[in-house]
Amino acid sequence: MSDKEPLPWRAAWIVGASTGLGAALAKLLDGRLATVAVSARSAEKLNALHSASQTIVAYPLDITDESAVAQCYREIESKAGPVDLVVLSAGTWEVVTPPDLDPKAFRNSMEVNFMGVVNVLAQVVPDMMKRGSGQIAIISSVAGYRGLPKAAAYGATKAALINLAESLYPELEAKGVTLSIVNPGFVETPMTAVNDFPMPFIMPVDAAAERLLHGLERKRYEITFPRRFTWIMKFVRLLPNAIYFWIVRRFILQSS
Ligand SMILES: NC(=O)c1ccc[n+]([C@@H]2O[C@H](COP(=O)([O-])OP(=O)(O)OC[C@H]3O[C@@H](n4cnc5c(N)ncnc54)[C@H](OP(=O)(O)O)[C@@H]3O)[C@@H](O)[C@H]2O)c1
After folding, report:
1. CATH superfamily, domain at 11-253
2. Is the distance from the beta carbon of residue 20 to the nearest atom of ligand 1 less than 6 Å?
3. Which residue, 218, 227, 138, is CA-closest to 185?
4. φ, ψ dihedrals at 167, nearest 5°
5. Residue of 29, 49, 110, 120 with fewest CB within 10 Å of its CB?
């Protein structure tokens, strides 16, 4: 165990932890909880995390497979006991822009980013509500605040997650279960490495994971970073449509 401050959880399950934000968070939690269960499709990357760790255990999983999610959750609980922190970081990003509006891209984005989250919630929420405790974080994005060019599929899934979290929060809170929605701006991960457009205020993944952990420890409902960018996006969310579309035309479409 680490000599850092104790954390308020015993067993965490991070889904989407083979790379990026999920992997960075797993490394931050390693040695500070009894178990850090990590899931994603890439068993090889999860096993590499496990090999270099004290408490990380690999549970490979495709989050779109509802019965596999149920089986994986049962396996984790049978080995590690009740999971009291669940972080849903699995996600996929695909440019979708007119005229090429391929339904497959929308379906895949929804299956991973939205239904994948639902598949996990369906398993963990009833147990947490029965126990009257537990914490869940859903990683959405500031791309869910307003529609952005290229993000017709991705943004829609993230907007759906923001709405889902708002819908569930009060009833979970009433039963002692904490739900957080995490809305990052740009973070340096394999997901953003493919982007060929400007990414203002992009932040290193380890700093982003620190900010995520900080928000989780404080049980914040909404966790955002980097702050300068997310505050701009929050302001932009309040603008009337005519001004918003002018900004998009002037600053986003012309620079892409
Ligand atoms: N990076 C950013 O700037 C940024 C900004 C806002 C929001 N986000 C959100 O933050 C979350 C983490 O993204 P990231 O930036 O860390 O990207 P990343 O490095 O690409 O991580 C995505 C993770 O999701 C996993 N995953 C993808 N499909 C999956 C599936 N079907 N089943 C299980 N796991 C799956 C990937 O692992 P496998 O491929 O091994 O399955 C990987 O571990 C995502 O929800 C993303 O939308 C990122």
Report:
1. NAD(P)-binding Rossmann-like Domain (3.40.50.720)
2. yes
3. 227
4. -65, -40
5. 110
Ligand 1 within 6 A of 18 CB? yes
Which pLDDT value is given to residue 10? 98
pTM of the predicted protein model: 0.97
Domain boundaries, the chain: 11-253
Active site residues: 154
Q: How high is the pLDDT of residue 3? A: 61
- Of 15, 19, 111, best ligand 1 pocket probe by most atoms within 8 Å of the beta carbon: 19
Give the long-range contacts of residues 72-76, CB within 8 A, separation 24 or more: 72/39, 73/13, 73/120, 73/123, 73/124, 76/11, 76/13, 76/35, 76/37
Asked if residue 24 lies in contact with residue 17, where contact means CB atoms within 8 angstroms, the answer is no
How many whole angstroms from 16 Cα to the centroid of ligand 1?
6
Report the residue among 13, 14, 15, 18 best suited for mutation to probe ligand 1: largest number of ligand atoms under 8 A from its CB. 18
User: Which amino acid is present at 198?
Assistant: P
Q: Is 41 in the pocket of ligand 1 (CB under 6 A)?
A: yes
Residue 17 Cβ contacting ligand 1 at under 6 Å? yes
- Predicted local confidence at residue 254, as pLDDT: 77
Cis peptide preceding 99, ω within 30 of 0: yes
Model confidence pLDDT, tens digit, residues 116-159:
999 999 999 999 999 999 999 999 999 999 999 999 999 999 99
Which amino acid, 203?
A: M
